[in-house]
Specification:
By secondary structure, this protein is an alpha/beta fold. The chain is 35% helix and 20% strand. The longest helix is centred in the first third of the chain and has 20 residues. 19% of the residues are buried. About 4% of the residues have low confidence.
Length: 178
Amino acid sequence: MKGIIISISFLLSFVNICLSQESKVEELTSIVITSSGQKADMRVAILKRLDKYIKSEALFNKPKNSAFLFSVGLSVDSLGNVDDIFFSDSVTKNKTKIIVVNEHLIADFKKMHLDDFDYRSKILVLPILFKRPDDDKISNLNEFLSSFSSLWPVIKTSNKHRVILLEPFINIFFDPIN
């Protein structure tokens, strides 16, 4: 009798362990990476919105071989309107003071309308790198690695949207001519 009770206890423990391995994990958001073929215009549209919020002087004052890396994320609703904006930590913590994130920038992005049905009910993430054309190495390696390690924006939304990673954009900037 004792053997039967021990066997049943062992069997129940085994079943309990097996079932605990099958935790009910929410399905992860799928990630889609798009090529620059037909979607390149989206990257340019995002950069045009960012343009007037970039502090050019701060960018030009960076030493030679300095690169600035960040990403922007746009949550698009089912109608094609941008309903939320996310930035990587290097922008939100405003360490570099190159991009001014304020209510006007957010409002400009929220005015965007995307006609492409592929982007509706999705989150678009665009990594952007600023560098000079003649830079052949990275001298601000610690800052760059810090930006790289926090490249993906913190997406604070309750919506379960798929994430589309747009092809990274290298924005080459030239120093002003005096």
